[in-house]
Amino acid sequence: MKIYLAPLGTYQSIAKQNPGIFNVLVMGPWCHGCWARTDGDWLGTAYFGMKTGVYYREHFELPFFNHFLKDLGDISQIKEVNVFDTGANQWGDLPNWSPTVSTDTPIYLMSDGKLKVWRWSNREASACEWKAVRRVRKRSVESRAVHRKKKQ
């Protein structure tokens, strides 16, 4: 998760401090630097159905450098936010990267080991499930406390 914080923070800072400037965010399914050194069709055992690294280099990186370093080519086809959807195995674009178009959804680990999307207005969980949820929360809090003590 940390690896995404720097590019997102950079994109958001540029958008805030320099409105109207050419500002592009590309999010692909790669390990750090793999867009440059691999074809990008696999990450571990996940297959993406296309060579995402090659696509990135041909559709984003090369036009960007040709335009800004050589005064060649057209960058109008590069959208502001370009994201590879690993569920659909395809590239898509967005008008911006804004948390206003998303919602938080709490997901809980139940006593049977399954995950459950829980809405607080929905009161169908058994007492056993709620105990499991409380145990997971308690362990999580205890784990964070132990981790903080180790750092000190």
Mean pLDDT level: 80
CATH superfamily (homologous) name of the largest domain: Alpha/Beta hydrolase fold, catalytic domain
For the secondary structure, the number of strands is 7
Helix content: 40-55%
Strands across the major sheet, in which order? 1-4-5
Total discrete domains = 2
Q: Briefly, what CATH class of the largest domain?
A: Alpha Beta
Structure classification: alpha+beta
Catalogue the unreliable spans: 141-148
The largest sheet, given as strand count, sense and whether it forms a barrel, is: 3 strands, mixed
User: Per CATH, what is the topology of the largest domain?
Assistant: Rossmann fold
CATH arch. level architecture of the largest domain: 3-Layer(aba) Sandwich
Q: Termini separation (Å)?
A: 23 Å
Radius of gyration over C-alpha positions, nearest whole angstrom: 21 Å
- What string gives the helices and strands in order? HEHEEHEEEEH
Helical segment count: 4
The coarse overall form would be: globular
Keywords:
single chain, 152 residues, alpha+beta, 2 domains, two-stranded antiparallel ribbon, 7 strands, 15% strand
In short:
With 152 residues, this protein is of the alpha+beta class. The chain has helices at 2-17, 34-37, 52-70, 127-151; strands at residues 25-27, 42-43, 46-47, 81-85, 90-94, 107-109, 115-117. It folds into 2 domains: 2-101, Alpha/Beta hydrolase fold, catalytic domain (Rossmann fold), CATH 3.40.50.1820; 107-151, no CATH class.
